[in-house]
Amino acid sequence: MFTRVLVANRGEIAVRVIRALDELGIESVAVYSEADRDAQHVKRATHAYLLGPGPAAESYLKVDKLLEVIAESGAEAVHPGYGFLAENAAFARALEDAGVTFIGPPASAIDAMGSKTKARELMQNAGVPIVPGTTDPVETLEDAERIAEEIGYPVAVKAAGGGGGKGFRVALEPDKLQDAFEGAAREGEKFFSDATVYLERYLPDPRHVEVQVLADGEGNVVHLGERDCSIQRRHQKLIEESPAPLVDAELRERIGKIAVDAARAVDYRGAGTIEGLLSEDGEYFFLEMNTRVQVEHCVTEAVTGVDIVREQILIAAGEPLGFGQDDIHWHGHAIECRINAEDASKNFAPAPGTVAHYREPSGPGVRVDSGVLSGSEITPLYDPMVAKLIVWDADREKATRRMARALKEFEIEGVKTLIPFHKAIMASEQWAKGETCRDLIEDKQWLKTLAFDAAPKPDDGEDETVTKDYVVEVGGKRFEVRVHGEAGGAAPVAGAAKAAPKKRERKASGGAGGGDTLASPLQGNVFKVLVEEGAEVQEGALVCIIEAMKMENEITAHKAGTIAELPIKEGAAVKSGDTLAVIKGG
Ligand code: MV4
To answer: Where does this protein have compositionally biased stretches of type Low complexity (predicted)?
Structure first.
């Protein structure tokens, strides 16, 4: 067994891995960027080393620096978590060359699954069902047009280097194919330096159902059942659950076998996930394999009792699996909500900031995996997840009530999060019926109802408005009241405060700067400008796309009118509060 393991990641997954190491009696080595000096993963690890400046390219992605730290710390193995270097075959090989164990699959399996066209061909040869379409790259638009006719519209165009929905476009009809083809290629080039695309039949309203597998070095492969991750927003999963609402024991066995076959076909070792689509008529198709631990692994842990991260470490240390397929039993129902620093009412705009107050829910059946504490900064440098809230209960309905209860207990102040969104989904009829909730997530009017309480206006030097919470007792009954009043004026509640209450809430991080000005709700780079000066726009029309926190954020017009000013350029940086457009009239 290892005596010291380096965790090449940050945030909640680094904490998760450190916990598993601690339970195995293994020392942990954390690494961190300058932005993460006070992070929880750094505090919890046995040892910690600075990698470099905040941007991931100068810290968490810097292979040379990591290799230096690995050597200096004496770590014998590296756990990559998810994201960053987790699916980087070159990193896995560099470790191997340095005589260090990569806690993950062989580099050859990462490579095999990294190219989606190669993976589709391998899977087809292994008898794993793939979505009908091409296994070879589609070189030209003319080829695409011919093949799309054979497949039949609508077709999905996907980037071969992609995955997780990056470089995924749909052409509903022939005259939309060029846009889809070029869009997917452009995104593939941008994110993966690979403009290769392939075509698939587009399945209407499928479920995203994925199967967790574990494989040891002795040829034992087991599956831990499925997770349903159909509730997504722009290919970011928001809610996951296990078991999947539409999967019974028979289907579980069938897709479990498909997943085991897929893993065997690439000589897999460690924990991996077969992602697939379950069509409306119950057909299951392989989509791609994730060769790492996933964000949503916790729901599988809850229903099987298997500690997936511990198993990863044991397998990498050369131990055989301590159980077979017949030892795996599923019990109850688990749901995970990703608590992102995002404002669902503003089209899921990122809402970075400082977590002023933080208190996690607890009680029966509740697990919180998080990397933050009160005072932590959610920076636009990394992904926006503040915490994962996972609940378990005997069945789906009970688990739903437990999730609603835990969401109510969760106290996060200073940054806007998806808590109101999750509360609304848990209370919805669609969720109760086990639907994908796509109609809700894409409904701008519904999302607007999730708006946060109005925050005070920025200080304009004159009649500043402040918000303060008070507890009052009326006839012995306790009430919590929120008072919006003038800062310099008389105390809004008699006797409650002598001095003017201090401004407590952070300035609203979204929406218009007031009047005609459309202000940027976030810091990022202008990816695309979709209007011109002088153009007429409707309220809600797409004005521009700002790339931040690895996401493309659609910024829409806050009112109807004419674009009078448009001081933005594609590729340029914008700060939160910068004017994106001035819209006059309307
Ligand atoms: C698809 C699809 C329909 N047909 N592929 C790919 C990445 C993943 N994030 C979702 N992906 C999809 N691939 C074909 N051929 C529909 C989706 C899809 C989806 C699937 C299940 C549940 C929710 C979804 C949300 C968006 C897209």
So the answer is: 490-499
Residue-wise pLDDT tens digits, 298-343: 999 999 999 999 999 999 999 999 999 999 999 999 999 999 999 9
Given a cut of 50, whether residue 85 has pLDDT beyond it is: yes
> How many independent structural domains does the chain possess?
5
State residue 73 phi and psi, 5-degree precision.
Answer: -80, -20
Q: Is 235 in the pocket of ligand 1 (CB under 6 A)?
A: yes
Co-location of 312 and 385 in the same domain: no
Q: Which residue puts its alpha carbon closest to atom 13 of ligand 1?
A: 165
- Partners of 241 in the beta sheet? 228, 335
Cβ atoms of residues 342 and 384 within 8 Å: yes
For a mutational test of ligand 1's pocket, the pick from 277, 286, 296, i.e. the residue with the most ligand atoms closer than 8 A to its C-beta, is 277
User: Last residue of a domain, which of 201, 230, 262?
Assistant: 201
| Spacing, Cα 116 to ligand 1 middle (Å) | 14
Q: Do 219 and 173 share a domain, yes or no?
A: no
**Regarding predicted confidence, which is higher, 506 or 96?**
96
Cα–Cα distance for residue pair 586/582, rounded to 1 Å: 12
CATH code for the domain of 159: 3.30.1490.20
159 ligand 1 Cβ < 6 A: no
Q: Are residues 210 and 256 in the same domain?
A: yes
Digit-coded pLDDT (tens) for 184-209: 999 999 888 999 999 999 999 999 99
- 306 Cα–ligand 1 center, Å: 28
The answer to whether the CB of 78 falls within 8 A of the CB of 8 is: yes
**Domain co-membership, 342 together with 436:** yes
DSSP-assigned states of every residue in 353-379: EE--EEE---STTEEEEES--TT-EE-
Range of the domain at 20: 4-103
User: Which residue has its alpha carbon closest to ligand 1 atom 12?
Assistant: 165
Decide which of 182, 201, 220 is a domain's last residue: 201
